[in-house]
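Students often ask why inverse folding is considered easier than folding. One informal answer: many sequences map to the same fold, so there is more than one right answer. In these notes we will look at a single instance of the problem. The structure comes first.
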């Protein structure tokens, strides 16, 4: 029996999140599969793919925690971005071929900060051709590799903050905090255009996803070292799924209501407690026991949206 088949045979139910500091050179799925094997986990998924050259926070979800992948995809994110000014590439990053060059203006820090302000707030952004979005059933990057350029609709995104870290020669480094759907490569190109030049993203490091911070991450060598002592050592670093949803209010219900919730039934909740509140909530039974994600519908009802079964 090979080591790989042994891991598959003994895979077990593992529930929780691991915030991987993804190294450069791996696709998000390759990183996921490596950690999944280290944990001997049956079921796994990741949220918010990073390009192979990009590094930083990649939330990996295991077992029941895969049910929150969609919610983490919608979370705000922040990045440390290094741009190379004066050179534009066909992919918008360092992996592509240089297709355009332009002089780099000699701008002071205050000039860059004023340019950044033009992109702060709610803006429209046209997705790049080298992206996974689909047009007529085909991925845009597939069309781009065939030399095709097609019209793409602009999308509304929000840039919460852009912080200048360094501007020297053809090197521009900044931190950006942004909404889901933001293409940093396109942001770099647009900022360079506003400065009167061209640019591409030379390095990209994701620092945060939602409320998770850089200090919550575990790098791959550390994960591998922990796993040498057995899967349980690494499993000790898993984060409960509900910690990814701390921005939502919580709702605690009694045993009878919990049984109905677990059966997928909507339950009546106290209007005095919720008023006309609507939206997603974290649902617990009593003082503990995370049951899943519910939605207050504004009519005194709490409807199950994702039910968590800890033993699965």
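Output (designed amino acids):
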């Amino acid at each position: 029996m090979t080591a790989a088949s042994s891991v598959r045979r003994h895979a077990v139910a593992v529930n929780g999140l691991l915030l991987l500091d993804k190294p450069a050179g791996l696709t998000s799925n390759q990183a996921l599969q490596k950690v999944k094997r280290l944990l001997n986990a049956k079921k796994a998924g990741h949220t918010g793919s990073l390009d192979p050259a990009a590094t930083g926070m990649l939330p990996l979800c295991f077992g029941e925690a895969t049910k929150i992948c969609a919610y983490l995809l919608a979370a705000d994110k922040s990045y440390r971005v290094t741009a190379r000014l004066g050179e534009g590439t066909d992919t918008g990053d360092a992996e592509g071929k240089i297709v355009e060059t332009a002089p780099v203006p000699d701008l002071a820090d205050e000039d860059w900060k004023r340019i950044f302000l033009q992109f702060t707030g709610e803006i429209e952004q046209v997705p790049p051709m080298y992206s996974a979005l689909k047009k007529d059933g085909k991925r845009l990057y597939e069309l781009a590799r065939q030399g095709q350029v097609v019209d793409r609709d602009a999308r509304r995104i929000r840039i919460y903050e852009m912080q200048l870290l360094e501007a020297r020669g053809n090197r521009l480094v900044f931190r950006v905090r942004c909404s889901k759907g933001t293409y940093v490569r396109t942001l770099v190109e647009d900022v360079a255009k506003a400065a009167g030049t061209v640019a591409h993203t030379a390095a990209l490091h994701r620092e945060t996803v939602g409320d998770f911070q850089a200090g919550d991450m575990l790098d791959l060598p550390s994960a591998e070292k922990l796993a040498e002592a057995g899967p349980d050592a690494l499993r000790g670093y898993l984060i409960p799924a509900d910690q990814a949803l701390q921005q939502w209010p919580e709702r605690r219900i009694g045993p009878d209501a919990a049984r109905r919730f677990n059966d997928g039934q909507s339950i009546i909740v106290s209007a005095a407690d919720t008023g006309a509140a609507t939206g997603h909530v974290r649902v617990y039974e009593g003082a503990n026991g995370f049951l899943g994600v519910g939605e207050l519908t504004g009519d005194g009802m709490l409807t199950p949206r994702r039910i968590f079964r800890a033993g699965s």
